[in-house]
Design brief:
This protein is mainly alpha-helical and about 150 residues long. It is built from six helices and four strands, in the order E-H-E-H-H-E-H-H-E-H. The strands form two sheets. The protein has a two-stranded parallel ribbon. The protein has a two-stranded parallel ribbon with strand order 3-4. Strand 1 (about 1-5), helix 1 and strand 2 (about 35) form a beta-alpha-beta unit. Helix 1 packs parallel to helix 6 (about 125-145) and helix 2 (about 45-55) packs across helix 6. The structure holds 4-nitrophenyl phosphate (4NP).
């Protein structure tokens, strides 16, 4: 799960998908990163932690890291939150295999539309709640599809 800062959207996506695969008993490794390094080592944004906790999921122990080309070797799928994340990830790809791993997260819920998860960082509380539901629906689709994968 990849966004810009790895403190709002992708930690949420990591927490949600992790929770869903655990509930389904699937052996899947979930992680998140940001295309930028400026929040590396930090915990998620306190507003994102609070919104996610209100839905019963604890993301407070996550630490931000920067996405790098080594992640292509570690993961089978790489989900971008928005168009600029998508482009920045592709810039680090070394092969068609790498490129084929990258998709927009919201294509899981809105196939082929290449929609972006809005960045709630600059806005109010409602933005965090709206993003929670967008990301939750997409992660539900991904987790259910993994049952048959
Ligand atoms: P995220 O949100 O990409 O969802 O983690 C942001 C967090 C921090 C900044 C931008 C977006 N920033 O400019 O510091």
């Amino acid at each position: 799960m990849v966004c810009l800062g790895n403190i709002c959207r992708s930690p949420l996506a990591e927490g949600l998908l992790q929770d869903k695969v655990e509930r389904l008993g699937l052996d899947v490794t979930v992680d998140s990163a940001g295309t930028a390094s400026y929040h590396a080592g930090e915990h998620p944004d306190s507003r994102m932690i609070k919104t996610t906790a209100s839905h019963g999921i604890d993301i407070s122990q996550q630490r931000a890291q920067q996405f790098d080309s080594g992640h292509f070797n570690e993961f089978d799928r790489i989900y971008a939150m928005d168009k600029s994340n998508f482009q920045d990830i592709l810039c680090l790809a070394n092969s068609d295999d790498d490129r084929n791993k990258v998709d927009f997260l919201l294509n899981a819920s809105h196939p082929g539309e290449n929609r972006s998860v809005p960045d709630p960082w600059y806005g109010g509380e409602q933005g965090f709640e709206d993003v929670f539901h967008l990301v939750d629906t997409a992660c539900e689709k991904i987790a259910n599809a993994l049952i048959d994968a």
